[in-house]
């Protein structure tokens, strides 16, 4: 098991290199001059080329990339072009907020999504199922800025229950996490429903039924456990994605998270922040994936046994079929 | 098991059996009322897109600065926007753009992702490791950031938006397809086909792909919906399709400042997106149920 | 299964705890913020000694010579003082008690002797000299202060300074009154380094910097040792709220006291609401189309440009886009800028415009490229309407929207034929208002007469004579149709009803030290 974890961590190295190369290349080819952005539209050509040289932007691609990687390896992610602060400080000022926001929203989503999915699956094509299908589809297609603004109008302006913007404490967390939670819950409900449906049709469920166990017991004891794997995958994916920042929701509720920072950085051509941010997000995403795989092992002993086989079979990478 | 018998038969004389299988699928699909509703909605949308000039009472870019931000009325069914354009006509024309963007982006994702996924799944070993590592890399970059960066690099415009959104969804398709291929690959009928002398290309295309269709179709039907939403989000940030082209997402974000006094400006484009996604999802679910004989009721 | 769920929950909980304590500093910070945020909310209702202001963007830094952002300047305005101050178009004393123009290249300032920086240092002539030298050399402010001679500027005695100019420069006082003229503390800048200084600035203003939470807010507190009038409140908090609708909601709920950027859509509601009010006044900002005839021949014919201008119903555009918060341009710069003379507005006559095009031999198959800024809704709207109005006289066009970053690049690189340009000459000086003519992106094939007049305007100190020069320049620019002026924008602020004396600065950089709170 621990060897498996080590191996996975080892696999993260090439992934992180790849991520850095892709984002560095993209940033290199984006039109728009960061020096011009920093100095403004009326700055002289001379001062702009001077600044380009200072930032090392006049060097060839390979040199710039190698310099960047050298910096990263020594823990130096560069200096933000706009704020002139170390990128690492900028990112770590925002990351806890994003992580907290992601965790709360995913909890909200699970609390709504999993039970709803189970109920729909057990009562397939019933009234409840159709309502829940419609609701989840609605949830998936409601633009988050619309939902966020509506919640804000109702609960802060008219009822005065929650503050409208900011992220300073539990009272402030409610509206944004519900906004995100509703959308994510839709995905989780769908996944739970379809995976439950598949499991319920399996022979062993039929066997359990024929043995005369109660429906509740069948669902919770036999079906749920086997249906959880794709659901956990979905939760992991949604959680990982929300670590990239919920750009629009962050904007509506003015939450100082990573998403807004990244988008601003792209539009201001603030390369060090974009690159550092993507690396951080990618890193946490891969860590979450690893955690999800470990959770599998707890849920499904069959997969756990694969870890053991893994040790013997060298090249079996067919671990996750998702 | 049934599926194996059936597909083994199929593998041996697939030419004659093909129509029979399609008929089966249709019979199963027909029974699912919600799926029919989905098909109806998508069909209606396609029809609306094709017949846009006939259906729309006004031109989509016809401005009337003297009657801006009007509430819905008989003259303007869905009201007018802040430049006095008829929202109904814009939504009708917008169906062309949104559906086009959605389908093309999903097609890019399906083709590229599907090809990568099936190659990785079928060949396994080193090729699988390399492809999946590349997919891991793409997956680790947040899709929205990737799409925005690609869009910023390529410049704005319809085509670039589709490419950006399409590429950012490749990893999802690749993983789904790979997973499906892995489960199909080990089954007897593949062995049988190989024993009958089928080459890899033939096997992937004729045997593996049809048996992986269910997850691909489900993913693609969701993917079209996702792509429409992603394009809308890009428009929200100001990248994406150029005005005065009436893309629904762009209409939605253009109207967001008016949401409190003139909610119709965001309501109708929002509803249009919602209906489309609803329809596509119902259709996708229906197709999945119909394509997967295991789920027969 | 239950056991497994428990484990999953445990993992999630551990992660949760991990986040809250990920770094001890951060955790305590969050807790603190929570307390202070709640505390300010509560105390605000009781005594109102905290004023919360919403900014539409976060300032990158508060170093006046190292940024390009209007929002940063609003914060800087109360943290720093300047030698002189411009109110209602008049130059008034601030850190300088008086000044005299010794010759064309020298202005002597007599400074106050009772001014201290927030770190306790006394403000002297050396700080002023250092500021001028720095403003001239730091790249972000250099172009703006290029007429100032930092090296030549001499300290006469502790409280007297001779500011030198490279060339006769009439706008000097207006420029010194702008944010680039904020007097920085030499000792602090040198000790802290420019980058750190920008995030924890030290000035002489009525409020001093206290705290910056990245992406969220900046807090200032009253400077009890201030030389001038004390502010009517103890604490000023700037919160970054990007979304315009959210700012409006926060203002209505009372979460903020002032919003520095109100979109026209929210105006009606905010002025009807008894708890909030709209403060509006004429501004320096303007929107116009830039035409580049240096790199493109398409619009080289002045008759064609005139026809394009004539085909635009600017009154209608302004009403539709700005809902009464702007005027149709009637000169090349707004009436708030010094030396303004009314020339227009341009006659709207599509038939005549079409005839002029035909006479000029315009090829009606040409498709004009209009470059626009995708992140500015008003600019996009203007372009879309213009596209439609030009279509009515048979001129085809295509809009390409860029992010502001790219648009700026394209304009300066001279790659845009026709582009929308927002401009805010925040000093109110006409030299600043015609600054865009210094660059490519805008340009005529024969612009020597324009250069001559710009130069003359800079060198003319006498107010009436200067106004005469700019009257000539405005006429010349207007008739050359090198730009198509569209709208002169008002400044709009939203405040709670009990906020009074809101400074309606035309440059969108209000001095928040003046506001008072009425005891209803």
TrEMBL record, chain A:
Keyword Calcium applies: no
Keyword Zinc-finger: no
Residue stretches making up the ABC transmembrane type-1 domain: 95-296
Membrane topology: Multi-pass membrane protein
Primary location group: membrane
Taxonomic superkingdom: Bacteria
NCBIfam families with a match to the protein in the record: Opp2B (NF045470)
PANTHER family listed in its UniProt record: DIPEPTIDE TRANSPORT SYSTEM PERMEASE PROTEIN DPPB-RELATED (PTHR43163)
Family (UniProt): Belongs to the binding-protein-dependent transport system permease family. OppBC subfamily.
The name this protein goes by in its record: Nickel import system permease protein NikB
UniProtKB/TrEMBL annotation, chain C:
CDD domains to which the protein is assigned, alphabetical: PBP2_NikA_DppA_OppA_like
InterPro entries: Peptide/Ni-bd, SBP_5, SBP_5_dom
Domain Solute-binding protein family per the UniProt entry, residue ranges: 90-439
Pfam family, one: SBP_bac_5
Domain of life from the UniProt record: Bacteria
Secretion signal, residue range per the UniProt entry: 1-27
Entry keyword set: Signal, Transport
Family: Belongs to the bacterial solute-binding protein 5 family.
Name listed for the protein in its UniProt record: ABC transporter substrate-binding protein
């Amino acid at each position: 098991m621990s060897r498996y974890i080590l191996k996975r961590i080892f696999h993260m190295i090439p992934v992180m290199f790849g991520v850095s190369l892709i984002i560095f290349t993209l940033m290199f080819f984006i039109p728009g001059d960061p020096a011009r952005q920093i100095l403004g539209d009326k700055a002289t050509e001379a001062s702009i080329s001077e600044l380009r040289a200072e930032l090392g932007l006049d060097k060839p691609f390979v040199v710039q990339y190698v310099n960047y990687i050298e910096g990263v390896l020594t823990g130096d992610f560069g200096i933000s072009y706009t704020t002139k602060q170390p990128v690492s400080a900028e990112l770590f000022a925002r990351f806890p907020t994003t992580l907290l926001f992601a965790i709360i929203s995913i909890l909200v989503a699970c609390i709504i999504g999993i039970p709803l999915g189970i109920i729909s699956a057990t009562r397939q094509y019933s009234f409840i199922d159709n309502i829940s299908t419609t609701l989840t589809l609605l949830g998936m297609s409601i633009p988050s800025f619309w939902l966020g603004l509506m919640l804000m109008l109702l609960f802060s302006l008219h009822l005065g229950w929650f503050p409208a913007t900011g992220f300073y404490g539990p009272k402030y967390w409610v509206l944004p996490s519900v906004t995100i939670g509703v959308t994510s819950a839709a995905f989780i409900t769908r996944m739970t429903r379809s995976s439950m449906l598949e499991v319920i049709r399996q022979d062993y469920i039929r066997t359990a039924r024929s043995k005369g166990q109660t429906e509740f017991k069948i669902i919770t004891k036999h079906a749920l456990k086997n249906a959880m794997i794709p659901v956990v995958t979905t939760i992991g994916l949604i959680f990982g994605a929300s670590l990239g920042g919920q750009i629009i929701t962050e904007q509506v509720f003015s939450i100082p998270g990573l998403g807004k920072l990244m988008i601003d950085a792209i539009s201001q051509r603030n390369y060090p922040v974009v690159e550092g941010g993507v690396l951080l997000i990618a890193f946490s995403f891969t860590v979450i994936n690893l955690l999800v795989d470990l959770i599998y092992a707890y849920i499904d002993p069959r997969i756990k046994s694969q870890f053991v086989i893994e040790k013997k079979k060298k090249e079996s990478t067919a671990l996750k079929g998702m | 098991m049934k599926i194996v018998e059936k597909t083994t038969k199929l593998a041996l004389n697939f030419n004659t059996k093909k129509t029979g299988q399609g008929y089966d699928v249709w019979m199963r699909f027909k029974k699912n009322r919600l799926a029919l509703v989905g098909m109806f909605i998508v069909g209606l949308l396609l029809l609306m897109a094709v017949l846009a000039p006939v259906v729309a009472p006004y031109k989509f870019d016809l401005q009337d600065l003297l009657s801006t931000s009007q509430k819905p009325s008989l003259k303007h069914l869905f009201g007018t926007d802040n430049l006095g354009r008829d929202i109904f006509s814009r939504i009708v024309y917008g169906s062309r753009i949104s559906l086009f963007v959605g389908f093309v982006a999903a097609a890019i994702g399906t083709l590229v992702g599907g090809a990568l996924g099936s190659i990785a799944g079928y060949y396994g070993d080193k090729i699988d490791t390399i492809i999946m590592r590349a997919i891991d890399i793409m997956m680790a970059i947040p899709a929205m950031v990737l799409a925005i960066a690609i869009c910023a690099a390529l410049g704005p415009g319809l085509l670039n938006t589709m490419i950006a959104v399409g590429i950012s969804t490749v990893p999802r398709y690749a993983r789904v397809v790979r997973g499906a291929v892995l489960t199909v690959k080990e089954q007897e009928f593949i062995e049988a086909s190989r024993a009958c002398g089928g080459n890899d290309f033939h096997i992937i295309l004729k045997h593996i792909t049809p048996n992986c269709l269910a997850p691909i179709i489900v993913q693609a039907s969701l993917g079209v919906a996702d792509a429409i939403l992603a394009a809308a989000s890009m428009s929200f940030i100001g990248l994406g399709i150029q005005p005065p082209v009436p893309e629904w997402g762009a209409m939605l974000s253009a109207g967001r400042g008016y949401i409190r006094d003139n909610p119709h400006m965001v309501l109708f484009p929002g509803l249009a997106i919602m209906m489309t996604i609803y329809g596509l999802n119902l259709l996708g679910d229906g197709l999945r149920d119909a394509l997967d004989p295991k789920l027969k009721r | 299964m239950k056991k497994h769920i428990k484990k999953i929950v445990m993992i999630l909980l551990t992660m949760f705890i991990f986040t809250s304590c990920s770094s001890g500093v951060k955790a305590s910070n969050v807790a603190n913020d929570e307390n202070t945020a709640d505390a300010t909310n509560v105390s605000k209702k009781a005594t109102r000694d905290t004023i919360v202001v919403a900014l539409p963007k976060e300032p990158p830094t508060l170093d006046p010579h190292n940024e390009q952002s209007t929002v940063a300047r609003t914060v800087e305005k109360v943290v720093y003082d300047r030698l002189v101050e411009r109110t209602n178009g008049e130059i008034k004393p601030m850190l300088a008690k008086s000044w005299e123009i010794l010759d064309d290249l020298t202005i002597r300032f007599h400074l106050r002797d009772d001014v201290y920086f927030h770190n306790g240092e006394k403000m002297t002539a050396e700080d002023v000299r250092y500021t001028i030298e720095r403003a001239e050399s730091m790249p972000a402010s250099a172009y703006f202060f290029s007429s100032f001679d930092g090296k030549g500027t001499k300290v006469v005695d502790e409280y007297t300074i001779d500011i030198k100019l490279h060339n006769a420069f009439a706008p000097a006082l207006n420029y010194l009154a702008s944010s680039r003229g904020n007097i920085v503390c030499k000792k602090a800048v040198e000790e802290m380094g420019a980058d750190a200084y920008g995030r924890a600035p030290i000035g002489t203003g009525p409020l001093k910097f206290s705290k910056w939470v990245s992406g969220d807010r900046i807090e200032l507190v009253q400077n009890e040792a201030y030389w001038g009038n004390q502010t009517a409140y103890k604490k000023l908090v700037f919160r970054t709220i990007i979304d315009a609708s959210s700012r409006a909601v926060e203002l209505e709920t009372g979460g903020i006291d002032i919003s520095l950027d109100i979109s026209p859509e929210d105006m009606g509601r905010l002025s009807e609401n008894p708890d909030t009010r709209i403060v509006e006044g004429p501004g320096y900002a303007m929107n116009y189309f830039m035409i580049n005839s240096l790199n493109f021949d398409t619009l080289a014919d002045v008759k064609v440009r005139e026809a394009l201008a004539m085909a635009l119903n600017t009154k209608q555009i302004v009403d539709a886009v700005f809902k009464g918060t702007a005027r149709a341009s009637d000169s090349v710069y707004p009436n708030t800028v010094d030396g303004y003379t009314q020339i227009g507005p341009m006659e709207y006559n599509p038939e005549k415009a079409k005839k002029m095009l035909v006479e000029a031999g315009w090829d009606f198959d040409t498709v004009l490229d209009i470059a626009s800024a995708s992140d500015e809704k008003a600019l996009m709207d203007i372009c879309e309407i213009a596209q439609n109005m030009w279509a009515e006289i048979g001129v085809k066009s295509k809009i390409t929207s860029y992010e502001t970053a790219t648009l700026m690049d394209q304009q300066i690189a001279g790659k845009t034929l026709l582009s929308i340009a927002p401009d805010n000459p925040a000093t109110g000086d006409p030299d600043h208002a015609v600054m865009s003519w210094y660059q490519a992106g805008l340009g005529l094939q024969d612009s020597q007469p324009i250069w001559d007049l710009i130069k003359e305007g800079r060198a003319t100190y006498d107010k009436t004579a200067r106004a005469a020069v700019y009257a000539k320049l405005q006429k010349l620019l207007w008739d050359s149709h090198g730009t198509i002026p569209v709208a002169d924008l008002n400044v709009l602020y939203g405040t709670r009803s009990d906020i009074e004396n809101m400074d309606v600065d035309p440059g969108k950089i209000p001095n928040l030290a003046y506001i008072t709170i009425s005891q209803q």
